[in-house]
Amino acid sequence: MQGKGVFRVDLWRISVSTTSEAADAVSVALEEVGAVAVEIEDRAEWERKLHEPKFGEWVWEKDFAELKEGALVHGYFEYLSKTFPQTMDDSIESRLECVRLSGLDVGSLSYAWTEVLSESYLHTWKADYHAINVSSQMTIIPSWEQGKTPLIDGHTYLLIDPGVAFGTGTHQTTLLCLQALESLVRKDMMVLDIGTGTGILAIAAAKLGAKKVIAVDVDEVAVRVARENARLNEVDERIDLFCSDLLHNVPKQGYRIITANLLADLVLRVLPDLDEYIIPGGVVLFSGIVMSQVERIVKAMEEAQFVDVSVQYLDDWAVISGCKKG
To answer: Which region is the signal sequence (predicted)?
Structure first.
């Protein structure tokens, strides 16, 4: 595991009550104020485990009774002092206010602090993640389950170690984006991945045959984790990973595919500049979009002269794709 030595000490945990729709936005807010790990408990996922268990899951309704608004977002912080929560409250409130103003249905955004043992957190966290099939030809395998999944020739396997702040790639929009990449990526393509996180989309593009992938994230921890994952998958020579605030440090090299796993406001911020980066006939994939924001993003893409704009849904989430004219 990478990170700031977080698993050698106790942790402070903040638990924010919100809706499923706003859970990702809340998790980003907690990362922005210094959370070294973030996890989401979603009522829909617990109900799935209850009614359609797999991998030996066994749950009771009482396990998710506290998820009254739909989701709890847990942010983990290094244990700096007994009074740490009081020093953080103003920053937390400020970031949550931005989420309130985003237009999402956010629920109460009430929160509470607790102390947790880092060792028990690590054990529980890993227990929640298992290999998952993206499609009939692609599977995500958490690094600690490497060797437990029988390998099939010709199948694409993505080995992912989330580090301390990111998921394993099982979120709905990540799965949709991976499925789209399967049908789009061809040999010798140039691919750009904005907001790479664990690097899972960049790694998938490289494994599917892309000649070169540029992958960026504003978070240095994300870049470090993504580099390790690229090495783990033996594609690090074809992926350039570095820090960038959206497109700020990205070379204009004529990309055939651009993926952007970003919240809606960041999508709208980056969209007008993509024309300088994507070649005619190139495809952009926006993920991380909740259903209520789809119409707004589609309209903006059409205004930016993207054609063949389409939307794929999974639960309340969407991936929106479009082609550059030409």
So the answer is: none
Question: Residue 46 and residue 30: Cα distance in Å, rounded?
Answer: 23
In the DSSP assignment, the letter for residue 3 is: S
Binding site membership: which residues?
A: 174, 195, 217, 261
Tell if the pTM clears 0.70, that is, is over it: no
User: What separation, in Å, do the N-terminal and C-terminal C-alpha atoms of the chain show?
Assistant: 45
- Give the tens place of pLDDT for each residue, 165-191: 444 444 677 888 899 999 999 988 999
Q: What is the CATH number of domain 132-324?
A: 3.40.50.150
pLDDT digits (tens, 9 = 90+) for 27-82: 888 887 878 778 888 766 544 544 454 433 333 444 445 666 778 898 888 788 88
Domain ranges of the chain: 6-127, 132-324
Give CA separation, 47 vs 57, 65, 70, 326, in Å.
Answer: 12, 11, 11, 46
Q: Which CATH number is 6-127's, of 3.30.70, 2.30.30, 1.25.40, 3.40.1360?
A: 3.30.70
